[in-house]
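[agent] plan:
  1. take the single chain provided in the ticket
  2. run structure prediction with default settings
  3. attach structure tokens to the ticket
  4. add a short note for the reviewer (M.T.)
[agent] executing step 1
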Amino acid sequence: MVGSRCDYRSRYHEKVSRGPCFIACLLCAWASARLNAAPGADFQAAVAALQHGDAATAEQKARAELATHPDEPEATTVLGVAL
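[agent] step 2 finished; step 3 output follows
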């Protein structure tokens, strides 16, 4: 019943309700892309070095990974464990 008194949704309501949904979809897409990103070779080498008990090599590899990808929290965590 568009245009009648029973129609409680207005154009304003439709535009306002779409905005937060669009932002939420963008955030979900960004998060899934970030989670699916493959770690670099230096990161994998740092984790392997930690698994073998070689903290010095793990530190070097983690620092190399952070030099190329400074916003990668996983590499920061590996560096903290290595230190």
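[agent] step 4 note for reviewer: The two ends are 67 Å apart (CA to CA).
[agent] ticket updated
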